[in-house]
Amino acid sequence: MxxxxxxxxxxxxxxxxxxxxxxxxxxxKDQQQKTDLIMESIRHxxxxxxxxxxxxxxxxESIRSFKSLLNRKVAxxxxxxxxxxxxxxxxxxxxxxxxxxxxxxxRTLSTLNNIPTSKLLExxxxxxxxxxxxxxxxxxxxxxxxxxxxxxxxYFSQNQMNYLLFFGLFPMLGLGLLWLILRNYITTPLxxxxxxxxxxxxxxxxxxxxxxxxVRSSMEETxxxxxxxKKELYRLARTDSLSGLANRSQxxxxxxxLISEASRENSxxxxxxxxxxxxxxxxxxxxxxxxxxxxxxxxxxxxxxxxEYDIIARVGxxxxxxxxxxxxxxxxxxxxxxxxxxxxxxxxIIESHPIxxxxxxxxAFYPQDGTDITGLMKSADIAMYEAKKLGKNQFKxxxxxxxxxxxxxxxxxxxxxxxxxxxxFELFYQPKMSTDGHQVVGAEALIRWIHPQKGIIPPNDxxxxxxxxxxxxxxxxxxxxxxxxxxxxxxxxxxxxxxxxVNLSVVQFLDDHFDDKFERIIIQSGIDPQKLDIxxxxxxxxxxxxxxxxxxxxxxxxxxSISLDDFGTGYSSLAYLKxxxxxxxxxDKSFMDDFNNETGSIFIETIVKLAHTLKLHVVAEGIETQDxxxxxxxxxxxxxxxxxxxxxxxxxxxxxxLRLTDYGCGEDRE
Length: 670
Ligand code: C2E
Ligand code: MG
Ligand code: MG
Hints:
By secondary structure, the protein is of the alpha/beta class. It contains 21 helices and 22 strands. The strands form four sheets. It has an eight-stranded mixed barrel with strand order 13-14-16-17-18-19-20-21, surrounded by four helices. A five-stranded mixed sheet has the order 2-1-5-4-3. Helix 13 (471-492) packs parallel to helix 15. One magnesium ion (MG) is lined by residues 444, 503, 535, 565.
């Protein structure tokens, strides 16, 4: 496409070409007209002289009388300088005595008609004939007319100059002027407007032409608006809308820039992963609006602890990442992180709700804990989980040992998946006994991994990993299914119709389909729900407590009883006991170990009294001695579980245990 600039140049060149073609045509025509006029004048003088001589001459001897005629002609015409009359080559009369011979033939021109300008300019002498009768015979004299060559040349060059000036130079100047005007008023401003449209760097000056100025100002306005909208969109795409902090994509962008800079300068920086503890509790109990406000609050205070050049981003619901690169010592770094922890754990008042949260923080360093974004984030994440595991509200650095642990977890997950496929998991059963008559009142299913090489692996070695890597849901479903079938099998075989307890992990409750699956298993199996008991720990109420509470109510509504396992080791809050649909408290083994010292017994007795007041059953766990049994009888706790009677047993051994009629434990055993 043609630019205005090129268009104007092309137009000007076309105009110049056309103009000069016309100009040259007229110029040449004018030259010829002038030549014709000059020739007309010369022809007139020459033919008049020839005519007078031929008509008035009496004889060749009278020719001299015409010299004055020649002189007059020469004097009266500015074009003619000399005239010579000759007979053959012999000069008869002449106007200049200096002329001694007639001009040679090649210097003369005998025709005076249709002479082109160029010929006239090079011709100096014209020749014509004078007819007369000599002794009654026609004869010819030759009349040479010398023209003033200089005068004619001057005349033409003067004419050419005028032409060039008026028709050559002035129009050129005019076109030049036109070009300048077009350039200054149209092409240059339009070009600057075009550049502005692309880069918005230099604002174009106002146009001097009204209509163009309207176009310019409206375009400038539009471009500025578009640019503003573009920047805003860019900002939004890189900003977390809730907190106003950078989002994950901005974090990645800035991190990769920082990584390349740090690798060039051989410097280090810290990536700090912050996760709020129990944020879900706030969300579930006070609603998402309050949760959002809390996140904004936390974002604000982290922002205030940091300096302008530190990167801070929100990368998930309650997850923040900060990148610190300007710290002199690790002491300074830990000071900053501790301040963040302290500030977060201060009381937040949101819409008049006093809220306390804490944060678990993991720290990883570039380059030793990772040289790319994924590696660094993973290391910081691992360290954060370690902080959570160690009791939350603290920070942990990523270490080699942590790394090893992660590798072990990956390996464990891999072999667990294989174990599920190969049916390597097995349920063992531990009886729950009555303290008085040592009757089997139930049994707890406890999972074991029968590893082909390592032998029996206890649950504490793989349940936490299964909870972390997501296998717990699948495994939990298998356990529940197996226990339910086992209960029905023992019942139908007539061996025992006892209540079986299943341990449920909090992770199972977090599964969206948990309620449906549980109900389906109970209904489809046809088990008497009262013969099923689920054991869960207090951690069930920490995360997503509302949903979990509704799941527990569903379980209860189905007729399945609920035991609170390891009671006393967690928060043991009275509020839980009041709010939750619990049937049984299981006193943790650690308390039972201390039964014979004052503090231990106070706890146990308090729990038992509490349970009786709330009309709950109590099961004492980890009973290993007769003394413990005696103590339990004394304080009115009538169910126990423990090695004293039996460890968890594989199905065939447990069946054998059940078959032993009048079976008893301890003193009654003999
Ligand atoms: P838990 O539910 O509190 O189970 C009681 C644990 O104490 C069992 O350990 C049991 O073998 C052990 N125990 C029972 N009596 C005695 C005793 O007299 N002395 C001693 N020293 N220990 C005794 P186990 O089987 O290793 O299970 C550990 C934990 O693993 C369980 O604690 C439970 O939280 C979890 N777990 C076991 N099986 C399952 C399961 O099928 N599902 C889930 N989610 N968790 C399970
Ligand atoms: Mg248990
Ligand atoms: Mg327990």
